[in-house]
Amino acid sequence: MAVTRTFSIIKPDATRRNLTGAVTKMLEEAGLRVVASKRIRMTREQAEGFYAVHKERPFFGELVEFMTSGPVVVQVLEGVDAVKRNRDVMGATNPADAAEGTIRKTHAESIEANTVHGSDSEENAKIEIDFFFDEDEIVG
Ligand code: IDP
User: Where does ATP bind (predicted)?
Assistant: First the structure.
């Protein structure tokens, strides 16, 4: 299996509760390496652009409000089969459905305030990494 990259966001519910380190530790223990990281306050334009695929969903407005409600930490993660590895450690979107030991089961507050984002395919990982990072900010 090849070493690949994925994109992660530690969401505002986690930064608010000072869980950046706790979440990153779970990512690292799952075999992922943080090769780029920055703490930002997402603008409305960034949040709307990032979640454009969801713009017809009923929760879109609230999701944009939530993602701009506090700082987030955007990260590039590297590892063997990084997209799947990250999705596995994140757990299901709704923490009520997430498996024991996953980040969302351990830390998420709700289906919306669910602590982490992770790309769902290698194709989207590349698009999402490019949305927030220049290549020279990524140090493997
Ligand atoms: P994912 O983050 O597990 O890939 P998606 O279905 O792509 O899940 O949804 C993107 C984000 O939108 C979720 O992580 C969550 O923050 C939010 N979201 C998803 N479904 C709902 C919902 O039914 N109500 C409110 N927010 C939702």
Answer: 11, 59, 87, 93, 104, 114
